[in-house]
Amino acid sequence: MTDSSGSSALVDFSNQLAASVAHAARSVVAVHARSRLASTGVHWRDGLIVTTDATVRRDEGITVTLPDGRNVPATIQGRDASSDLAVLRVEAAGLPAAELGEPADLKPGHIVLALARLDASGPRVSFGAVSAVGGPWRTWKGAEYERLIQSGLALYPGFGGGPLVDAAGHIHGINSGGLSRQFATTIPRLSVERVLAHLVNQGYVPRGWLGIAMQPVHLSSQVRDTLALEKTAGLLILGLEHDGPAAKSGLFVGDIIIGVDGHDVAEPDDVARAISGETVGRTLAFDVVRGGTRARVDVTIGERPRGGERGRQRGERHSRGHR
Prior knowledge:
The protein is α+β, with helices and mostly antiparallel strands. The protein has six helices and 22 strands.
């Protein structure tokens, strides 16, 4: 026998989730940018549709299905494989913009929904809970995200590019199936807005570049004692591109980098975080060990060459088949 009050609470909860889906789905569209299966996108603002780069497999002939069933043409505003985001532009008067949630409000255990739209038949939904949130992290493709959001949601085919929605119907980011094989990973709202701004204003996302090859090394006790260093590791420079920013600024093969801009570094990712796109053109102080002495080298950060070849060689361009 079922308790009537418990049954009523469950029905109320179910109805609330359905209302949240309906609310968020007003800005969720189907993106037809690959053969066979559509993917999902979110009308972020001002005719700009955000989706995942991996699901946009052609540059022309793209259309979008709106919540009212209309099909409208879309053009690519910009795309960034490293962050797995693409921005499309559409002319769709009256299409509501995404209602965004506050990042700090989302916590482990909160009920969340993944939304998708594949055609004119209405939204599709996956149900789960936030499994982890955390601070800044770097993807295997080289992008830096302001916040980690992982959940137990199932991202079915076509769900890539769709929103993560909380129980109140607020959107917290874009779901990607290409960032983790174990968990549904969400590109957080602040990261989406940062990449969106770059793609709208510049057409691409600038990233810092040094033109350097390096590997972690242990600092011997003799070096640490001589230089009064507490740190035990650094990054040995193995090679420099002749015309790269590091070589032009005076770094040499054999230097051991132990700090950048006042922050200790012991792994290549530490340097990558220090030279984000916002540092392009800036001069940062590199603390190095050179020939048994300590030196400071002021390095002007360059902009990573565009065109994709360098990124593909490092594995940043990934297989475009993610949900």
